[in-house]
Amino acid sequence: MWTRERIELTQQRILKTLDKTIYGFDMFGTIHIVVAEPDLIQSILSKEFQNFPNRRQINLNDEFFSNALSIVEGDQWKRIRAVVTPTFATGKMRTMKPIIDSVAEKLIQNIQNNLKPHCPLNMKNFVSAKDNPIIKMARKMFNVDLSVKNMLAIGLL
């Protein structure tokens, strides 16, 4: 099926047409499965995550982002997953949610206050990691060393 429509819109249309919550298709010789059932998605992404280590291959020419958990496969995926799983435990994430919500609201308000018609906005000034309160709080709460030296030591860079 060749179309100029964005893939996610095509997928939504197919889901409505088939009246199903799961379907598969072949794209360039690779089988893809589309899941539109919230409970199943939650199960796949949390409870059964260890059973789905491989995703669509994305070749990035960036050493840092090419090691993202959502991109790596096989043994490298298992190693990184074992390192990050305790850090993102449900209880810790629940504790962080109000902080993240508060910072997100402030960010949105700050952006809206600085919008000017037909004038570009330098987003780096708004979301700079060195000033980001979420990252500062994560360092304290999770006792996470976010230094480049530590990331190199555990193989994330």
TrEMBL record:
InterPro entries per UniProt: Cyt_P450, Cyt_P450_sf, Cytochrome_P450_3A
The organism's place on the tree of life at top rank: Eukaryota
Coiled coil stretches, renumbered: none
Pfam families, per database record: p450 (PF00067)
Keyword Plastid: no
GO molecular function: heme binding; iron ion binding; oxidoreductase activity, acting on paired donors, with incorporation or reduction of molecular oxygen; steroid hydroxylase activity
Keywords: Heme, Iron, Metal-binding, Monooxygenase, Oxidoreductase
Family indicated by similarity: Belongs to the cytochrome P450 family.
Protein name (record): Cytochrome P450-like protein 22
Protein species of origin: Sarcoptes scabiei
